[in-house]
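Record 1 of the preview.
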Amino acid sequence: MNVNATSSTPSKHRELHAVVIGPGRIGCGFAGDVLAAAGYRLTFVGRGAAIRALWQAGRYTVRLVDGPRATEREIGGIRALEASDPRAAEAIATADVIAVSVGTAGLPGIAPLLAEGLRRRTTPVNILAFENEPEAAAILRREVLARWPAAAEHGFSGALVSRIVTRRTGDPERGEPIVFVGDPASSFVVHAPSLRAPLAIIPGLQLVE
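->
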């Protein structure tokens, strides 16, 4: 049952902040895209070459292809942090919403960072696992609670994504822009009872029971 498929833009009085853990095809090409479109300032957290490329470029492009037509939008003003950087936990502590896209096997590996960031918070926050895996949110919640049981006050939900992001191109070290290529679909479904108020306002978000 579709509980709420409406959306609006965030308040103009305060800049909202989203943390995206996992700078891959779905993390950047979908989660980062819809959050940026909703007016959120983005901080990407990850490891290795992908996060270094985003740090160097400070921006990337999403190219949405629909048959012979293609549209592009640039997502700029982003921050990119190594997961080992102390500022990553601080970003989690102040975020208005947290998106995770690291693959199911990678969820236990990010649990210590999430637990540390959530430990510093004074308000509840929702963590959305963009993994297209029914048990992803349960796995992530269990791993985080094992490290900090009080994290149970926060929301953990999976996110079923409609977009297929086929590839990433570009190498900033060669002067090439980073481009994520996918289809135009922009809706995603999350489990409403697993979330905590206040809910993030994101176009395309569909809450179901």
